[in-house]
Design brief:
Largest sheet: none
Radius of gyration: 25 Å
Number of helices: 14
Strand content: under 5%
Amino acid sequence: MGAILSLPVVGYLLMPSLTSYSTSINILFFYMTWSTLVLSQPPLKVEVVGTLAIRTLFFLVPSLLFLLFDSIIPSLAVGMKTQGSAALPTRTGGVRVKRRGGSTPPVLQVLGLSLFNICLGVVIQSAIELLFTEVLRIRSALKVSTTLPMPWSIFKDVVRGLLLREVLQYYIHRFILHPDSATYISKLHKTYFHSVTAPYSLTAHYDHPLSYILFRFLPTYLPSIIFRTHLLTYFLLLSIITFEETLTLSGYTTVPGIMLGGIARRQDLHSEGHGRGNFAPWGLLDWVHGTSIGGDLMEDIGDEAEKHQIKERGGRAWGNAKESGKEGFKAWKGRRKSSKKA
């Protein structure tokens, strides 16, 4: 735990920035802490501990809190779930209709396999770094240096990392995990991940290890080693993806944000429909290839834009009503004063 809290990126995310002066101090403090950490610790240790810290903060902790909420107040939680009572994991295991011969994985099994998959990903990540640095004697897969990445570099690497992840996940998911003719890998994916038809956050990393590495780990990690991004940029990308997966597979009807709400709905329909469509989170390639189910990306954006316009119009109408009320009150007071003088 102490190693996790010692990561400067965690402290920096939790550190308040009230003014430009304090922001400059925070950046200086962050740079000094990061430099000290990189110079005093092996790069691989920094990468491994940082990855585990992010998975803990953005997946494990929120998932357990959601599970606790669903278990303690099920009467309230059921109204917030897209699939209703079927999405309460401690009561139904996240299965809407139990199929003959099918088994429902208990929550502890889902938690255990999810943690195993995360650790397996870290082991593979470490093995790749050791292969590059110790066996091939070349530079590390991710850039680890005391120099902080510039804002434009961070933005560019995160955006292309997310885009490449969307492409990889779509084609791997559609043609390897859900091919026209069943294969060994697709059967594993169906047996594990699709045994839960009403997803909850812990199922974000629940799958057979082989299909998990193909669908979750590689599309997240591969773009960063292709472009050899800075380790801090990779941490930011991993945080975004991990938190997105945790929220969008929570099973709740209301998820904040234009993109996340649509992703959550598509993920839920993918699980409920046993993988008939919605093969990538953003839905961009599903829209291009016509594999969207239950509405596509363009419809989500249109619906959200319409909602925001309604809110803005309502806000303007309320503001106009308040102004009219103030003017009417002032006129009434003026008439009252004039009548008293008369």
